[in-house]
Specification:
Elements: E1 2-5, H1 17-22, H2 25-35, E2 41-43, H3 69-82, E3 101-102, E4 105-106, H4 111-118, E5 121-123, E6 133-138, E7 143-149, H5 152-163, H6 167-174, E8 180-181, H7 196-211, H8 215-219, E9 227-228, E10 249-253, E11 259-265, E12 268-275
Parallel strand pairs: 1-2, 1-5, 5-7, 8-12
Antiparallel strand pairs: 3-4, 6-7, 9-10, 10-11, 11-12
């Protein structure tokens, strides 16, 4: 399977180059995830650098402007993608003389038509027209469905079996921007210790956790049993030591015996450890 950079998703919609660069994070992360799989590739048109990012500026103009340090890696990642092989329009598969209609517009000789005929997917920039959705194209003979991908979450949801993400990546992508934070998860007690069915139970419970309307409703959920970890002695405290000083450790269950431990910081729950056998939870 291949992915095609969608040149139609850049049509001068950004107010400035900085706004465009700030929008690149999801796309750049998708690019990295795809390139981490040797059997996958990303194609684009030869003159992709001529795509407009603002009313008056194209991608090639980025070479001439200064870029803040925090946005430089996004620009470099995009440059590596845009200015290097492979290019699909050297030998297009679809018949560019045919009419391919999308929303009443003929999109022949574009990545939309090429993706349709080759049964591949688009990798699109920030645009409501292309944001994580299926595009319907028609020609004289067929109707085609083309996936337009913008975010890493949608990429994993649709192409999990092709991307082969590790479990930690799944957690980071799936729960980015939610009340769950995995940046503090300790490797010795992380997702690697869970069996396949246990990891599935974790995801199901976390989906439920993040959909709650408030921390109060989480506390009232009898299924989660979200409560303070309260060991009966210092010796039995799984989180004793300076590293956890001042933190109120909380826990909730994601099966009859499996537990998740962490602490709340602001409106986010920072996950520290998973427990498989309930022995720790028995004493707190």
């Amino acid at each position: 399977m291949q992915f095609l950079l969608n040149e139609r998703s850049l049509y001068g919609q950004f107010r400035s180059t900085q706004e465009f660069l700030k929008s690149l994070k999801p796309v750049v992360r998708c690019i990295k995830m795809i390139h981490d799989c040797p059997e996958l590739g990303i194609y684009k048109i030869l003159n992709f650098h001529e795509c407009k990012i603002t009313k008056d500026e194209t991608l090639s103009d980025l070479k001439l402007c200064g870029v803040p340090d925090e946005l430089l890696r996004f620009k470099l990642s995009l440059d590596r993608e845009v200015y290097h092989e492979p290019y699909w329009d050297r030998l297009p598969v679809h018949d560019v003389s045919q009419e391919f209609l999308w929303e009443g517009e003929n999109v022949a000789a574009t990545s939309l038509a090429e993706a349709a005929v080759t049964n591949n997917s688009l990798l699109s920039f920030q645009s409501e027209r292309f944001l994580d959705r299926v595009l319907i194209l028609r020609n004289q003979e067929f109707t085609y469905q083309v996936d337009s991908i913008h975010t890493p979450r949608y990429l994993l949801e649709q192409y999990h079996d092709s991307i082969h993400p590790d479990r930690k990546l799944i957690l980071f992508v799936r729960y980015e921007g939610t009340r769950i934070d995995f940046s503090t998860l300790e490797d010795d007690y992380g997702v690697a210790i869970l069996e396949k069915n246990e990891f599935a139970e974790l995801l199901s419970t976390l989906d439920k956790f993040v959909k709650h309307e408030s921390w109060e409703s989480i506390g009232r959920d009898d299924g989660l049993e979200y409560k303070k970890y309260n060991p009966s002695s210092i010796k039995e405290n799984w989180f004793r030591g300076a590293k956890y000083q001042g933190k109120t450790i909380m826990k909730f269950r994601f099966s009859r015996i499996l537990r998740c431990y962490g602490y709340r910081k602001g409106d986010r729950f920072r996950v520290l450890r998973f427990e498989r056998d309930h022995k720790i939870s028995n004493y707190g």
